[in-house]
Design brief:
membrane, 20 helices, about 70% helix, MFS_dom, mainly alpha, glucose 6-phosphate:phosphate antiporter activity, about 500 residues
C-alpha cells in the first residue's frame, strides 16, 4: 500500500470529496462512487447509441411510403416544418432504408471487433484513462454526426466513417466498466448488485430516446449533439473521480463493509490479488482466456441473446409505427416513447436474473430459463400486440424482461465470475479480456440481427419474429452442458446436506 498516497493524489475528485468531508472516505463510499460513476458512464454509451434509431424516420420519412405505408404524419407538422419534412439526402431516396441499415451494420461490426482489442488493451493499461478516452471520443464523433445537419452534408461516406469511428470508441466502454466494478465487489451478491447496476443499459436507452425525440423539433442534429456533449462531460468526470481499484486509492476494506459476510465467502471479499506485487501479474492472453471453462458457451449464448436484444433496440420504434394498434397507426415520436417500455422491462429482468442467480448460485440455469421464457413472450407480442395500446405495452414490457434479463446477467456477473475463475490462480488481469471476448462475440450477433431484420422485414415481420424465437432457443441450448453441470451439483449438495444413516458408521 506504499503507493496509495500517490494513487490518491492523482484523483482530484476523490481529494475534493475528502476535503468536503474533512477526512478519509470509507471503503463503502468508494464502492458507492464506483457504482454511480460507472452506471452514468455506460448509460451515456447507450444514450448515444440509441439516437440513430429515433432519427431514422426523420432522415428517411419516405421509407414507409415506398411500401404503401404512410405512418409518419407528425413529420409533416408545423413543429417539424423545416426541410427535414422531406428527409435528408442521401437517406430520403429509394435506397434510404438500406443506407441506414448499412450505418447500423458498420457501427456494430467495428464495435464488435474493436471489443476484442479493447479488452486486450484494458488489461494492460490504466482503465480510468482508457475509459476517459473512449467516452470523450464517442461524445465527439456522436456530435460530429449531428454536425452534418448544420454543415448541410449529404455525403453518405461522411456519416459512414463517423459511425465506424464512433463504434471503435464505443468498444472501450464495456470491458472497462465491468473490470473496474469487478475489482471492487466480491462474488456473493455480485449478481444482484450487477443486476441493479446493469439498469444503466435500459436507463441509457430510455434517456437517449427521450432526449433525441425532444430535440427533433429544433433540428435532428441536436439529437446527436446533446447526448454527445453529455457523454463528453461524464468522460471528464470519470477522469477526475473514478478509482479503478482499492489499491489505486489506498482504500482499506472496513470490517463491516464487506458484501461477503457469510461462510467462506468472507475470505475472498474482493476480486483482487492477495499479493502486493500486482505489477508482476501478466495479463492473460486472448486464446488463453477463451480456454477458461464456461467462456465459450456463455459467449456463444450471448451471440444469439444480443441478436434478439439489438434487433429490438434498432427496429422496435420502426416496427411499432408500422403496426396498426387498435386499428390506428402511431407517429414515429409516439412509437419511440412507447418502445421505452421494452427497456423498463429490461431493468426488472436484469435485477430478477441477478437476484435469482445469486440465490440459486446458478448462473447458467437462470440465463437459460430466461431465454426459454423469451420464446413465448415474443410469440404473444407478435400475435396480440395489435389488440390495444395497453396490451402492446404490457407484452412489450414482459418481452423486454425476458430478453434483457440473461443479456444483463451474462455481460455483468457471469463475465466477472469467469474473469476471476479459479483456473487463473488469483490473476486479476483477465477481467477486461474475458469481458471483451464474451460481449464482443455477443456484439457480432448484435450486428447480424438488425442487418437480417432489414431484409426479412421487407417481406414479413412474422418471419422476423420467427428468427428471434429461434435465436432465443439456440441461446438457451448453448448453455445445456453448464445447466446439466449446475443441476448435478445442486443434487449432490442436497444429498450431502440431508446426509445418510450410514454416514456416521463409516467415519
Amino acid at each position: 500500500m506504499g503507493s496509495a498516497p500517490e494513487g490518491s493524489s492523482k484523483l482530484l475528485g476523490i481529494r475534493f470529496l475528502q476535503y468536503i468531508k474533512g477526512g478519509p472516505i470509507s471503503f463503502k463510499t468508494h464502492q458507492a462512487i464506483v457504482l454511480i460513476i460507472t452506471f452514468l458512464a455506460y448509460a451515456s454509451y447507450h444514450a448515444t447509441r440509441k439516437t440513430t434509431s429515433i432519427v431514422k424516420s426523420v432522415l428517411d420519412p419516405q421509407s414507409s411510403s415506398s411500401n404503401g405505408l404512410n405512418f409518419f404524419p407528425s413529420l409533416r407538422s408545423n413543429r417539424l416544418s423545416w426541410k427535414l419534412g422531406d428527409g435528408w439526402s442521401p437517406f430520403n431516396g429509394s435506397d434510404g432504408t438500406s443506407l441506414l441499415g448499412e450505418l447500423d451494420v458498420a457501427f456494430l461490426s467495428v464495435y464488435a471487433f474493436g471489443m476484442y482489442f479493447s479488452g486486450h488493451l484494458g488489461d494492460r493499461c490504466n482503465l480510468r484513462i482508457f475509459l476517459t478516452i473512449g467516452m470523450i471520443g464517442t461524445g465527439v464523433f456522436t456530435s460530429l454526426f449531428g454536425v452534418g445537419y448544420w454543415g448541410n452534408i449529404h455525403n453518405f461516406y461522411y456519416y459512414l466513417v463517423i459511425q465506424m469511428i464512433a463504434g471503435l470508441f464505443q468498444s472501450t466502454g464495456w470491458p472497462s466498466v465491468v473490470a473496474v466494478l469487478g475489482k471492487w465487489f466480491g462474488k456473493k451478491k455480485r449478481g444482484l448488485i450487477m443486476g441493479i447496476w446493469n439498469a444503466h443499459t435500459s436507463v441509457g436507452n430510455i434517456a437517449g430516446s427521450l432526449i433525441a425525440s425532444a430535440m427533433l423539433g429544433y433540428g435532428w442534429g441536436w439529437s446527436f449533439v446533446v447526448p454527445g456533449l453529455i457523454m463528453t462531460f461524464l468522460g471528464l468526470l470519470v477522469f477526475l473521480i473514478l478509482p479503478i481499484s482499492p489499491e489505486s486509492v489506498g482504500a482499506e476494506e472496513d470490517d463491516d463493509s464487506s458484501f461477503e459476510k457469510s461462510g467462506e465467502e468472507a475470505s475472498e471479499p474482493l476480486l483482487r490479488n492477495e499479493t502486493p506485487n500486482e505489477e508482476k501479474e501478466k495479463a492473460v492472453g486472448f486464446l488463453e482466456a477463451w480456454r477458461i471453462p464456461g467462456v465459450a458457451p456463455f459467449a456463444l449464448c450471448l451471440f444469439f441473446a444480443k441478436l434478439v436484444a439489438y434487433t429490438f433496440l434498432y427496429w422496435l420504434p420502426f416496427y411499432v409505427s408500422h403496426t396498426a394498434i387498435d386499428g390506428k397507426y402511431l407517429s414515429s415520436e409516439t412509437a419511440g416513447t412507447l418502445s421505452t417500455l421494452f427497456d423498463v422491462g429490461g431493468v426488472l429482468g436484469g435485477i430478477l436474473a441477478g437476484h435469482i442467480s445469486d440465490r440459486l448460485d446458478a448462473r447458467a440455469i437462470t440465463a437459460a430459463s430466461f431465454m426459454y421464457c423469451a420464446i413465448p413472450a415474443l410469440f404473444f407480442y407478435r400475435s396480440y400486440g395489435h389488440v390495444s395500446l395497453i396490451v402492446n405495452g404490457g407484452l412489450m414490457f414482459i418481452t423486454g424482461m425476458f430478453v434483457n434479463g440473461p443479456y444483463a446477467l451474462i455481460t455483468t456477473a457471469v463475465s466477472a465470475d469467469l474473469g476471476t475463475h479459479k483456473s487463473l490462480k488469483g490473476n486479476s488481469r483477465a477481467l477486461a479480456t474475458v469481458t471483451a471476448i464474451i460481449d464482443g462475440t455477443g456484439s457480432i450477433g448484435a450486428a447480424i440481427g438488425p442487418l437480417l431484420t432489414g431484409y426479412i422485414s421487407a417481406k414479413s415481420w412474422s418471419a422476423v419474429f420467427t428468427m428471434l424465437m429461434g435465436s432465443a432457443l439456440i441461446a438457451g441450448l448453448f448453455l445445456t452442458r453448464l445447466v446439466v453441470s449446475e443441476v448435478t451439483t445442486k443434487i449432490e449438495e442436497s444429498r450431502s446436506n440431508r446426509g445418510t444413516p450410514e454416514g456416521p458408521l463409516q467415519v
